[in-house]
Amino acid sequence: MKITFLGHAGLYLEFDSYSIVVDPFISGNEKAKEKVNMDELNPDFILVTHAHQDHILDVSAIAKKSDATIVSNYEIAMYFQAKGLKVHPMNHGGKRQFDFGTVKYTNAIHTSSFEDGTYGGQPGGFIVQTDKKCIYIAGDTSLTMDMKLIPMSYALDLTILPIGDNFTMGIDDAISASSFVECSNVLGYHFDTFGYIEIDHAEAISKFEKAGKKLHLLDIGASMTI
Fewer CB near the terminus (10 Å): N or C of the chain? Predict the structure, then answer.
């Protein structure tokens, strides 16, 4: 599985003959819009964790171009369905088999509303499991004891955690979260986009190393393979 960091909380997953975009915020992200070419993104699915603008800004544009199916909670799915886009609604604890593997919608502690104030349902995260790899995308969340439920059912190859603090968990809580989900291979996201969530990269990597864990901090547009 190849994972490309699109900036902020945006991801592009490529495996076998399938691809998935997660929470695309590119055209409005000054740090990403010159580094990521949205025309090169042609996903089969778009996963949306919650309704905040910095996670859904480019969903419609990418979905219209690619004919991707948008997967999210019921409220977000219905919002995009009303725009004529293909959707698959889910809710917390639910799991669905797709052609590429399974997706489970997990709990997250955050808020969720569209830019106009429309209710965006409750925020969540995703576990994506193919026949080869299993990853956890936490979404915007605080540290939560619910994360301890994940390793009861899944052996993760990578956990993707917000690390920017202020709006989500920070470095120290992300280290605890990786212990909760029993995965020491961590990709950090939701950091550096704007002042509130800027981090010290060297300090973050050092703290993870001291805890016996590996933190990946990708440049925007860069990729890693698991």
Answer: C
On whether residue 93 sits in a domain, the answer given is yes
**pLDDT 10s digits, 111-166:** 999 999 999 999 999 999 999 999 999 999 999 999 999 999 999 999 999 999 99
103 contacts 120 by C-beta, under 8 angstroms? no
Cα separation of 59 and 218, whole Å? Answer: 22
Residue 106 main-chain phi, psi, to 5 deg: -105, 165
Residue 166: CATH number of its domain: 3.60.15.10
* CA-based nearest residue to 24, from 1, 57, 2, 70: 57
Check if the beta carbon of residue 49 is closer than 8 Å to that of residue 108. Answer: yes
Query: For residue 128, which of 206, 55, 46 has the smallest C-alpha distance?
Result: 46
Give domain status of residue 225, yes or no: no
